[in-house]
Amino acid sequence: MSNHNAANEAAAQIQPAKGKLGVMIPGMGAVATTLIAGVEAVRKGFAKPIGSLAEMGTIRLGKRTEGNSPLIKDFVPLADLNDLVFTGWDIFGGNLYDAAKTAQVLDRDQLDQIKPFLEGIEPMPAVFDKHYVKRLDGKKVKTGRSKCDLANQIRNDIAEFKTRTDRQVMIWCGSTEIFLEPKEVHSTLEKFEKGLVNDDPDIAPSMIYAWACLKEGIPFINGAPNLTVDIPALQDLSKQAGVPTAGKDFKTGQTFMKTVLAPAFKTRMLGLSGWYSTNILGNRDGEVLDDPDNFKTKEETKLGVLDYILQPKLHPDLYKDIYHKVRINYYPPRGDNKEGWDNIDIFGWLGYPMQIKVDFLCRDSILAAPLALDLILFMDLANRTPALKKLGMQEWLSFYFKAPTVPEGLYPEHDLFIQSMKLKNTLRHIMGEGLITHLGLDYYGD
């Protein structure tokens, strides 16, 4: 079979992106309002979708000499931005224009250009329990006899939204919950569902959303470091139902820089003796992470990165004794404009020490919004692609996460450039195109 036929056959198995794509967001705060306002601004022609690989990225097909690098959105059948419809849940009430003003990410003039659109979206009351996020008080919260009752209320919300949209995706943009470890209730779907009925304290609100979402056959994306779908019960449900999941924790500022710099040191066999990271931020995320139990959840995802990239067991002379420290400090004046400061102590030839200092004055939600958009578009694509859908967990989307979920027995890939290659090769594969290996023999000889 010719390459052209193979490509046509592979692409033909992917269902087209017809009709409206409904986007359901638990937690409609800074990230969600920045995403939604941004999508509308792009649709109206006020802005470009900067930071979105799905919208602005290209993908090389074939040899360099062929000069064939289409836009990703022209290569794979992604949903059109004009077909996105948004809804969600939030504990604070009010419409999205009010929520966006409170978040103070986008300036008032920009928001006013799309004010009627934002005012037209009002979040539904959320499933919330202060036990998991102590620093917040819920104003619009669902009540129910049990966690099972609450989960079924979410399913009813989803069912209503299904009547107005053709396909759906759910993306968690809510707060970081307290640190939870996998327990017995998470071990099987049967035990988990019994735990919902019995109000088990190890079932957090994000898990209730994820269960309801997967039961309704909708892909679920975890943008926070919560345990959520990293449990056998929900992974089994995802696989049985053939519904994609992806996570976890959007890779935005400091960890993004780590997954760029650490691979560079390892590639050049430069040693690392210490990496001190601190953050100051003042948005609701900062307030929540000011609580030690919630910070521990975030710390786990931020600390794991270096070990996996540097592989100290394979390179003990260079990396076995790294001192790695991560701090997050709540500093209200900074708002959403987070500062990530890193001091990196490296050593080179004959053990001579050197230092690198990074001061990243980043805007958290401005970095997170395009990641959320890409994940929505790619997860919808996965749900229409038989080869991806059946996997359940979408490891090829590791590019977007601080703590990528992987099948048991595998270690996560954190190197940003390997993640990027994995993502693009997956797109080539599902479209029946040849993979690009960067082999150095391609252009030589006959």
Automatic annotation (TrEMBL):
Name of the protein this chain belongs to: Inositol-3-phosphate synthase
UniProt record, GO biological process: inositol biosynthetic process; phospholipid biosynthetic process
Domain Myo-inositol-1-phosphate synthase GAPDH-like: 253-365
Pfam families associated with the record: Inos-1-P_synth (PF01658), NAD_binding_5 (PF07994)
Sample GO molecular function, one term: inositol-3-phosphate synthase activity
InterPro entries (alphabetical): Myo-inos-1-P_Synthase (IPR002587), Myo-inos-1-P_Synthase_GAPDH (IPR013021), NAD(P)-bd_dom_sf (IPR036291)
PANTHER family: MYO-INOSITOL-1 PHOSPHATE SYNTHASE
Organism, scientific name: Terriglobus albidus
